[in-house]
Amino acid sequence: MLIDHNYIAGRTLKEWKLKHPLIDDLISAQEVFWINPEYKTSNNPIPIEEKEIHEAETRLIRFAPYIAQAFPETQHTGGLIESPLMPIQNMQGYISKRFNIEIPGHLWLKCDSHLPISGSIKARGGIYEVLKHAETLALTHGLLKLEDDYAILNSPKYREFFSHYSLAVGSTGNLGLSIGVIGAKLGFRVTVHMSADAKAWKKELLRSKGVQVFEYTSDYSKAVEEGRRQAENDPRCHFVDDENSRDLFLGYAVAAYRLKEQLDKLKIAVDSDHPLFVYLPCGVGGGPGGVTYGLKQVFKENVHCFFAEPTHSPCMLLGLATGLHDQISVQDIGLDNRTEADGLAVGRASRFVGKMIETLLSGAYTIKDEELFILLQALNKTENLQLEPSALAGMPGPARVSKTQSGREYLKQFDLEKKMSKANHIVWATGGSLVPKEIMNQYLNRRD
Ligand SMILES: *Cc1c(COP(=O)(O)O)cnc(C)c1O
Questions:
Q1: Looking at ligand 1, which atom is closest to the CA of residue 290?
Q2: Are residues 226 and 244 in the same domain?
Q3: Domain range holding 273?
Q4: C-alpha angle 319/322/327, rounded to 5°?
């Protein structure tokens, strides 16, 4: 193949394939399961200290009175944007049958699909970054003190103030939705640069809120690049940089501390006898990376995190396995980055995130689009829960760990085999509650 002679970071693809035979399986768009050889249970570098995650947590608490007032649907959580953790026993039985393997332990769904305000995991990082920016602006202009009741921000005076500033973001859909909804509510002018994958309903919803939406015929990386370029020329514009943002990452990391509270309340132990497995759908990496980073801070070697990507967009797996991070794209190896899992349609991973998690992540795997829809329909049938396709990527995780040879070797290496009957598995459901009914019906009736 011609592409074999393409140079990627100083070597031909052929050479990269010799070094990492897994690339051949990725190229053929097969489902793969990869254990991270760099994974370490101790002595990991700590580029972000726990203190910073707690600061983010505290900031979200300062904003809670504002959120509760501006978004009444968050009143029952006192203005905290949080999602339920639900047992999905029927689905556990289904997965066991479908993949013909016993799934010992308990299976849970972390329902970020039902996060208030924007119905996806982006309601964590995206909203956090906008709130932090708004707070900084108001503080530096003497319009706000840390001790104030932040509900005052929900007034014409502050909206007028924020209207002199703007926000921009590049997105496959859900990040744009989160930034757009919270930004417009605060009074900012918001521009969202949407990749070709973005669903029409997400763009329409944003336009209905007064957000300016630019559409691109190319993929996510290009939309981000354009957004970044346009924002550069405007000192009053804050660009939410999905590929490099520490604030987004921190907003996602807070989820781990919230999850710990939920597990404590349910009296679910996570310790050396009760391992926790977490399966996270991955696009550019920020959402699953931030959550993983937080989880490793909280649960250390007792939590095992796996990323899940579409077979046509395995950018993080490719970046981690080769160690090239953002120096290699799925297009470089001949994949088209086309998937119905729009939230995961990213061809080039974030280097920032890849470096943050390269020794923390246990592994990653890929899943075919057809399988996402089968699982979407099964979850609807067994649990009456409706998710968007991206959000199902984590679902086969427990079966993959138990069934694949490399998964079993991992369990053996970390002495987990005998503990699996006491394990908890959390599938991170990353989006879906805002999908319009007609589109959800199409998903539910789709036959491949
Ligand atoms: C964005 C998104 C993800 C992945 O998050 P990244 O930060 O891009 O890795 C997963 N699922 C859904 C539904 C998303 O919108």
A1: 7
A2: yes
A3: 7-48+77-117+253-445
A4: 50
Residue 210 pairs with which residues in a beta bridge?
Answer: none
| End-to-end Cα spacing for the chain | 30
Whole-number Å distance, alpha carbon 399 to ligand 1 midpoint, is 22
Q: Is pTM beyond 0.85 here?
A: yes
For residues 281 and 306, membership in a common domain is answered with yes
| Alpha-carbon distances, residue 208 vs 181, 205, 357 (angstroms) | 10, 5, 37
Task: Please write the tens of the pLDDT for every residue from 104-148.
Answer: 999 999 999 999 999 999 999 999 999 999 999 999 999 999 999
- Residue of 174, 279, 434, 443 best suited for mutating to test ligand 1, as the one with most atoms within 8 Å of CB: 174
In a domain, 57, yes or no: no
User: How high is the pLDDT of residue 6?
Assistant: 86
| Distance from chain centroid for Cα 141 | 33
The residue nearest atom 14 of ligand 1, judged by CA position, is 343
**Domain termination site, one of 248, 266, 282:** 248
Which atom of ligand 1 lies nearest, measured to the CA of 125?
7
- Least confident range from 2-11, 92-101, 275-284, 324-333: namely 2-11
* Ligand 1 proximal residues by C-beta, below 6 Å: 120-122, 174, 281-288, 343-344, 388, 390-391, 430-431
Q: Mean pLDDT over residues 155-175, rounded?
A: 96
